[in-house]
Specification:
Helices cover 47% and strands 15% of the residues. By secondary structure, it is α/β, with parallel strands linked by helices.
Length: 246
């Protein structure tokens, strides 16, 4: 896919999403970003897009609500006139012991990390068909891609991210005839969570064969590669510095 004059929607405008938006804009893509609560960060990312002489806009959307997904896609189409690329990055990441998990805890993660990815794709696909094709990039996790959980306390997250891989494969089959290619990124140690100590940073670095955290740009490179490819679909690509082989 040639990115010039295409329109992308990124669900999630913080940190990695902001860098992906900037990289798309430098290649001639107009970018919409959605946010649940992080309005300042999403607006800042949209401003970066506009600084690159492309159209940029931020939309508030609570993707835990089913109707919000279709409404978001429609708002993007109403604003930009089309939709070519959907990047499902919205995620809930909370640690909670198994014995303390509630139905609400389960739903809070599954509804955003997995169901919203499906619903946004379901709403976006008809818009992409009108353009003769499109790209959908979902976000899984290197642990789910590796096929086994490693850390306790993230049961709903692991299940959701494993489900994203299955969703990606099934969507790729369903949408191939429409020239809508569907792939996923499975990030590893890209950015330390807020509050990470120096000791915790070093532990991750030592467990990663390449010896460092990847940084947001490495994810943007992977996203761009999958969007630009015309012959990769149904794949989940780990970007983890070799973490899965150690």
């Amino acid at each position: 896919m040639i990115l010039t004059d295409k329109v992308a929607l990124i669900t999630g405008g913080k940190r990695i999403g902001a860098v992906v938006a900037s990289e798309l804009a430098t290649r001639g893509t107009d970018v919409a970003l959605s946010y649940a609560r992080s309005r300042t960060e999403a607006e800042r990312a949209a401003e970066t897009v506009r600084a690159a002489k492309r159209r940029g806009a931020a939309f508030q959307a609570d993707l835990s609500q089913p109707d919000a997904c279709a409404a978001l896609v429609q708002s993007v189409v109403d604003t930009f006139g089309r939709l070519d690329i959907l990047i499902n990055m919205a995620s809930v990441y909370v640690q909670r012991p198994f014995d303390d998990l509630t139905v609400a805890d389960w739903s809070a993660v599954i509804d955003v990390d997995l169901r919203a990815a499906f619903l946004c794709a379901h709403a976006a696909a008809p818009q992409m068909r009108r353009q003769g094709g499109g790209r959908i990039i979902n976000f899984s996790d290197w642990i789910a891609r590796s096929g086994r959980p490693r850390y306790r306390g993230y049961l709903p997250y692991y299940v959701a991210k494993a489900g994203v891989i299955a969703l990606t494969e099934a969507l790729a089959l369903e949408l191939a005839s429409d020239q809508i290619l569907v792939n996923a990124i499975a990030p590893g140690p890209i950015l330390p969570p807020p509050g990470t100590t120096d000791d915790e940073l070093r532990v991750v670095e030592q467990a990663t064969p390449l010896g460092t955290w990847g940084g947001e740009l490495e994810i943007a490179k992977g996203v761009l590669a999958l969007i630009e490819s015309d012959f990769i679909t149904g794949e989940t690509i780990r970007i983890d510095g070799g973490r899965h082989v150690k």
